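Anyone up for a design puzzle?
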């Protein structure tokens, strides 16, 4: 017996979930398909969740087929969410599963009542939601449908219907969905525009996902032995992060660099904490793939980026597109790709002449021209030179220092070790952004982490101090908030038990 295609829609009151459900039912009926829908409205608009469940029988199914009224855990083929937390709710309830479900969701947020009532920042962690979406669904189509509705002049539910059509998961042609919108007779032109926008975006997302999948498969084939080594060595709870780190660093540099990543993780795995290993693996992969001009050139000349830009500006295939990249490197950015000795001489010259931090070279490069694209591809092709640069040497030294602090902290307390691992979040980007983050990171290392490892704080107090300093640095990159926090930590240190002894 053919099985029905099951759809679960999670929406908020006012998002038009009921209308979306009616469009799907109408389109299915117009094709002669068996269909049944159950609607469970929530409470007042924008405050309550609404749920809609639809089952569609494929063509050729017996007309007497019995369809269910309610979704079953693990039995949902397509989940649609008009807001990101609604997607999270369906995942939490077990309706979205990695072996079956295609999740189509808007990434914008509408704060829940509990989030609004919190005295501080009560908003749910969006990063955690997105990780759950990626890990717990088979395929994903994610974009800001609220913004898409605004840009297309339509409404969110029409964009979501277009994304559903673009996914190709239902045996219903686009024309049937469009006819359903026309038959409803309300805001037809704007709803059709929003439908087309969502459909096009979804198909672009799917094409990009196919390209990324092929790229990952190619990377896996080149590092299969490293993947197998990780699976033999590390606990299963950390493998998703470790394997992604291997792929990332292979694409960033080469296989040997990914092997160095595992060598460094071996020492962390020996500490015996799977949770700590996962956190370090995540941050280490990011730190080892630091941003430099070579990496920037790689990103700006990738085929995926150009396709994404065309999709964002809605350029048609025959329409020309011009992209101008703006660069403003300073003396430090130029020194970063020189050998260490030459870099030091250039930096010293910049200090003596007062040009350091003041002299920049503004450049506009049109990457949609042959000459402009070739200039950036030449820089992107310098991966082989990266290990000889001063920035590479500096980053590897900082990474080893960070890993050493984590290893030293673990015997004192895993909470302290985890907080030190999390301090890597301060280091990001390049140029002035990287410099500010690195300066704050080093201050925390010298004024908090070093005294903690020397036993001048209790492990619990040290973990809290590192966390507070990190939060202050992230909140204020200029360092004023961090300076006040460090002063408060230093003032409190003499009252700590071990310090008193």
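Challenge accepted. My sequence:
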């Amino acid at each position: 017996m053919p099985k029905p295609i099951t759809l679960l829609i999670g929406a908020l009151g006012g998002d038009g979930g009921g209308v979306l459900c009616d469009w799907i039912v109408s389109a299915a009926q117009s094709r002669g398909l068996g269909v049944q829908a159950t609607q469970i409205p929530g409470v007042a608009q924008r405050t309550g969740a609404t749920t809609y469940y639809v089952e569609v029988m494929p063509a050729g199914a017996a007309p007497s087929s019995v369809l269910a009224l309610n979704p079953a855990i693990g039995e949902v083929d397509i989940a649609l969410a008009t807001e990101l937390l609604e997607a999270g709710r369906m995942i939490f309830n077990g309706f979205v599963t990695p072996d079956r479900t295609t999740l189509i969701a808007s990434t914008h947020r509408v704060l829940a009542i509990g989030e609004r009532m919190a005295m501080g920042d009560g908003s749910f962690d969006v990063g955690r939601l997105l990780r759950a979406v990626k890990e717990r669904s088979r395929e994903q189509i994610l974009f800001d449908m609220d913004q898409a509705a605004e840009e297309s002049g339509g409404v969110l539910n029409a964009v979501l219907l277009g994304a559903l059509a673009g996914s190709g998961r239902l045996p219903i042609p686009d024309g049937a969905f469009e006819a359903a919108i026309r038959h409803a007779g309300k805001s037809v032109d704007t709803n059709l525009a929003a439908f087309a926008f969502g459909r096009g975006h979804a198909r672009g997302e799917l094409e990009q996902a196919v390209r990324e999948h092929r790229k990952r498969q190619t990377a896996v084939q080149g590092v299969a032995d490293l993947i197998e080594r990780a699976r033999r060595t590390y606990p299963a709870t950390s493998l998703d992060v470790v394997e992604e780190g291997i792929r990332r660093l292979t694409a960033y540099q080469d296989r040997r660099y990914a092997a160095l990543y595992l060598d460094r993780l071996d020492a962390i795995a020996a500490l015996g904490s799977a949770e700590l290993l996962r956190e370090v693996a995540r941050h280490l992969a990011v730190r080892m793939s630091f941003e430099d001009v070579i990496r920037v050139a790689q990103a700006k000349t990738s085929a995926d980026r150009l396709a994404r830009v065309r999709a964002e500006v809605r350029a048609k295939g025959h329409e020309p597109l011009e992209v101008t990249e703006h660069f403003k490197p300073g003396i430090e950015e130029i020194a970063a790709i020189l050998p260490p000795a030459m870099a030091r001489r250039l930096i010293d010259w910049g200090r003596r002449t007062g040009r350091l931090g003041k002299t920049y070279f503004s450049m506009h490069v049109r990457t949609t021209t042959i000459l402009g694209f070739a200039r950036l591809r030449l820089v992107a092709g310098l991966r082989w030179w990266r290990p000889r640069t001063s920035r590479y040497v500096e980053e590897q030294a900082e990474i080893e220092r960070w890993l050493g602090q984590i290893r030293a902290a673990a015997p004192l307390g895993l909470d302290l070790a985890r907080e030190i691992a999390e301090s890597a979040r301060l280091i990001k980007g390049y140029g002035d952004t990287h410099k500010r983050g690195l300066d704050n990171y080093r201050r925390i290392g010298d004024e908090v982490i070093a005294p903690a490892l020397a036993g001048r704080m209790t492990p619990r107090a040290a973990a809290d101090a590192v966390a507070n300093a990190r939060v202050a640095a992230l909140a204020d990159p200029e360092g004023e908030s961090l300076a006040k926090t460090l002063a408060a930590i230093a003032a409190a240190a003499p009252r700590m038990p071990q310090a008193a002894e």
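A detail worth pointing out: Confidence is low (pLDDT under 50) at residues 495-501.
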